[in-house]
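In practice, a research group might receive sequence data for several interacting partners and want a quick structural hypothesis before committing to experiments. The following worked case mirrors that situation: the sequences arrive first, and a predicted assembly follows.
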Amino acid sequence: MGLFGDVAGMLSFLQFAPQQDLISIVTSLIWIVFMMIFLLYPTFSQRLQLGYILRDLERRLNRLKAMRDEVRARTLETLKKYAEKGVDVGRELDNLLLSFMIEPESMDPYGVVYKLEHIARSWEDTFEEHVKAICSKADRERAKTLTNLVDVARGMDYLYRVVRHYYLLGKKTSNVYIVLQVQMLIPQLMEIAEAYRQASYAFMHGQPIGDGVGVLAAAKLVENMEKKTYEIAKDTIVHETSFEGRKLFVLRAAGPGGAVGRPADGLLKILESEGDRVKAIIMIDAGLKLEGEETGKVVEGIGAAIGGLGVEKFKIEEASKKRNIPLYAFVIYQSIGEAITPMKESIAKAADEVVERVKKLITSKVEEGFSVIVAGIGNTVGIGVT
Amino acid sequence: MFSQFRAGKPVPKPMTYLKCLECGTINSRPFKDGDYVFKIVEEKCPKCGSNKMKIIGIYVKEPQKKQAQSRIVSRRA
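A structural hypothesis for the assembly, expressed as tokens:
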């Protein structure tokens, strides 16, 4: 190459190389630093992920808190309308929001259903009496709806406290797996929270909700029939009538206040009085649809269509099995949100379809001269008695 | 009072559907506190002028479904 080549090389190095080298050296240094961080601090990536998830959860938790506060404020405002002066409604409401029920021990499962029934009913009665004591100016129907409203606020408050617990626990312990689980569930939880928010409006005004479609169908079934109506169990009424030569017992919760009644108790009493004459039990209830399914679609099946803790379902199944009476079920599809928010048109219209299908089932499955029980299951808020 | 939060979607407002006990005309109006299904109310029928009407439904009117739907969703849905 010779001297000239060396000098030229040197010149070009002096002109361009310093810039190129500086960039590459800095880049290499950054990479080395990153590699060292990852080598010496293997949980660094998890830390980054944890920080990102915690920020996301914090944002959603703030939204959840705003919704909780909104529902609480609305409940408080409504309760104050029916409370006497001098009652510390805010403090009483906070006591109700934190009230709880301890489920019975199931190590020995024998008789657990009846223990659960006893505890659940004691808790429900105490809760209702507490609301009535606060809202002494409210009539019976309004007091029932107010109890539902406080129950919605309690559900919303509990949801917020549980999410906050896991957020803080994950933050405190820097456990990415705890916060990851909450992050995976949070979209569904936010949907439930939104449903609670809308449900509080419905209960505040006494508007029918999607869950009431079973009761609505039962009421429409006997709307223009001559009937005898009486209370058969707590908050539960029965319409006794006849339909094309069959004796018809239509069981439902009493409205228009928000109540679900005790359909199993009512059903057992009818079975006791009617004996072997009952040839079918037909239950109508709102059912949880799968994503992509149509709201208000009516489907037919076999079994006890009733939700809740399972006590009512157990008792109805036991009674029907003992007497060998078939259980027919009509379910009206809706989402969990639609079930507790103001009733949609498609759900309300489904009640008419159910009525026709129930009539058809009665004539095809029950012979003339025998009896049939139709139970409309659900919350009666905003649905009166025909 | 609650506008400061702006926490969620707008709450759907149901309509009350009333049927005249004289001529059977059905009409609707926004829901009012105290309304419930099967309640007999003293409101004037817009057609015959009778003042006895029965609430036959309280529900949220849904928008008409679009014709073109996702192929994933069933056609009957």
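Before designing any experiment, note the following. The CA atoms of residues 14 and 61 of chain B lie 7 Å apart. Chain B is about 0% helix and 25% strand.
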